[in-house]
Design a protein that fits this description.
Helix content: 25-40%
Number of helices: 11
Strand order of the largest sheet: 1-8-9-10
Radius of gyration: 21 Å
Largest sheet: 4 strands, mixed
Order of helices and strands: EHEEHHEEEHEHEEHEEHHEEHHH
Distance between the termini: 27 Å
Number of strands: 13
Strand content: 15-25%
Shape: flat
Length: about 400
C-alpha cells in the first residue's frame, strides 16, 4: 500500500562538480560535431583530474577525411568549458591544464547495427531500458526534491558568475529532504549545502550567511520552518574543489540528471552521446510522453518505460504505470502512445528535433524540468502531445 506521509530526499551538484565538468566537455564536443554534421555519431567520454583532461571515445562522420580537421577544435572547446565554469585555480585552470584527445572513428560493427539501408530501417544504437517520469508536484511536472535542489545551485551559480558573490567557488552540492503529507510536498525537514569558497578564512557560519538568502529565494514560501535543519559546509573549509579535489568522469551523475531517485533509471548516461543512442534519445522521449500524459489530466503521476535492442528500430515494449492516479487504464495509455508517436530512433529524433547542437546546456542542473527553448533546446519538455494522447485513449 502506498504511503501518504513521508520524507523524500534528492541531491544535485553544480556545474563545477568534477563529474559535471566532464559532462559539460563531452556535450560541448558533441555539439561541435552536430553543428558541422547533424547526423554525426559521437560517443565522447571525459576524465578530469589535477590540471589534466583526457577525452576519448568514438566519432563517426559521413566524410571521415574531415575527422582530423574537427579534432583540431577539441582543445579550444575544452578550455572554453572550463573557463565558463570558472576554474582558474593553481592546480586546475583553463589556461594551464593539459588536454589529451584520444577520440577515434566509430566501430564499423556498431555502425552496421545502427545505419539504415535499403533492407532495413535505422536501428537502435544499443539494447537497453529507458524511463520517463512526470508528476504534479511542481509547475514543471517534476518531483519537488530534485527540482528545488537544482534551483538552489543554479541560483548560486548565477550570483557567483555575475560577480554578486565573488567568494563562492564553482564546485558545490545540494541536498533537500521534502516532507510529504497526503502525498503532497508541504515543507523541508533539512537542507544540506556544501559549496567551494575562495576565502580561506570563511567559516561554515560565514558561508551560510552568504548562501541562505538565495536558498530562501528559490524555495516555495512556507517550506522553511523553525525546525528545518541546516547543514552548510558541515565539514568546515571547502577551498580545494573541482577536479583538483576529486577526479571527474562523464556519466557518473545519472540520478542527478534525471529524477533524483523518485523514479526508476535504466542505467544509461546521457552526456557525450549523439541522439542515435537510445540511452539518451529514448529517455528524452519517455520523459516527453510521461509529461504529456500528466499534462493531459489523465494522471497525477506517470512512470513510462521503453525498451530497445541494438540494430532493431521499433521499441520492444512500452510500459505505463500511473500509480493508481490514472483517470483511464494504464494499458489504454500504452496503446495511445504507440499510436501518437513514432518511437523508432529516427522517429524520436525527428519528432523532438534532436539532431541539433543543443546538448551542452543540459550538462548541469538536470536534463528534465527545464523550459523548452526557441532553438529546440529541451524540446522534450513540450506538452504539445497532450490533447492528441487524450483523444487517442
Amino acid at each position: 500500500m502506498a504511503r501518504n506521509n513521508y520524507i523524500f530526499t534528492s541531491e544535485s551538484v553544480s556545474e563545477g562538480h568534477p563529474d559535471k565538468v566532464c559532462d559539460r566537455i563531452s556535450d560541448a564536443v558533441l555539439d561541435a560535431f552536430l553543428a558541422q554534421e547533424p547526423e554525426a555519431r559521437v560517443a565522447c567520454e571525459t576524465f578530469a583530474t589535477t590540471n589534466r583532461v583526457v577525452i576519448g571515445g568514438e566519432v563517426g562522420l559521413s566524410d571521415q577525411g574531415k575527422l582530423a580537421e574537427y579534432m583540431g577544435k577539441i582543445d579550444g572547446i575544452t578550455r572554453d568549458c572550463i573557463k565558463d565554469i570558472g576554474y582558474e585555480q593553481e592546480k586546475f585552470s583553463w589556461k594551464t591544464c593539459e588536454v589529451t584527445n584520444l577520440l577515434h572513428e566509430q566501430s564499423a560493427h556498431i555502425a552496421q547495427g545502427v545505419d539504415a539501408s535499403s533492407e532495413k530501417d535505422e536501428g537502435a544504437g544499443d539494447q537497453g531500458i529507458m524511463f520517463g517520469y512526470a508528476c504534479t508536484e511542481t509547475d514543471a511536472l517534476m518531483p519537488a526534491p530534485i527540482q528545488f535542489a537544482h534551483a538552489i545551485l543554479r541560483r548560486l551559480a548565477e550570483v557567483r558568475k555575475d560577480g554578486t558573490e565573488p567568494t563562492l567557488g564553482p564546485d558545490a552540492k545540494s541536498q533537500i529532504s521534502v516532507i510529504y503529507k497526503d502525498r503532497k510536498p508541504v515543507g523541508i525537514s533539512s537542507i544540506v549545502l556544501s559549496t567551494q569558497h575562495l576565502d580561506e578564512s570563511m567559516t561554515s557560519q560565514d558561508v551560510r550567511a552568504v548562501v541562505e538568502p538565495y536558498i530562501l529565494e528559490v524555495l516555495p514560501e512556507g517550506w522553511i520552518m523553525p525546525e528545518t535543519e541546516w547543514h552548510v559546509n558541515p565539514t568546515g573549509k571547502f577551498v580545494i574543489g573541482g577536479p583538483d579535489g576529486d577526479a571527474g568522469l562523464t556519466g557518473r551523475k545519472i540520478i542527478v540528471d534525471t529524477y533524483g531517485g523518485a523514479a526508476p533509471h535504466g542505467g544509461g548516461a546521457f552526456s557525450g552521446k549523439d541522439p542515435t543512442k537510445v540511452d539518451r534519445s529514448a529517455a528524452y522521449a519517455a520523459r516527453y510522453l510521461a509529461k504529456n500524459v500528466v499534462a493531459s489530466g489523465m494522471a497525477e503521476r506517470c512512470t513510462l518505460q521503453l525498451s530497445y535492442a541494438i540494430g532493431v528500430s521499433k521499441p520492444l515494449s512500452i510500459y505505463v504505470d500511473t500509480h493508481q492516479t490514472g483517470q483511464v487504464e494504464d494499458a489504454a495509455i500504452e496503446r495511445a502512445i504507440a499510436q501518437c508517436m513514432d518511437l523508432t530512433p529516427r522517429g524520436i529524433r525527428q519528432h523532438l528535433s534532436l539532431n541539433k547542437p543543443i546538448y551542452e546546456r543540459t550538462a548541469a542542473y538536470g536534463h528534465f524540468g527545464r523550459a523548452p527553448e526557441a532553438d529546440g533546446g529541451f524540446s522534450w519538455e513540450r506538452t504539445d502531445l497532450a490533447d492528441k494522447l487524450k483523444a487517442a485513449v
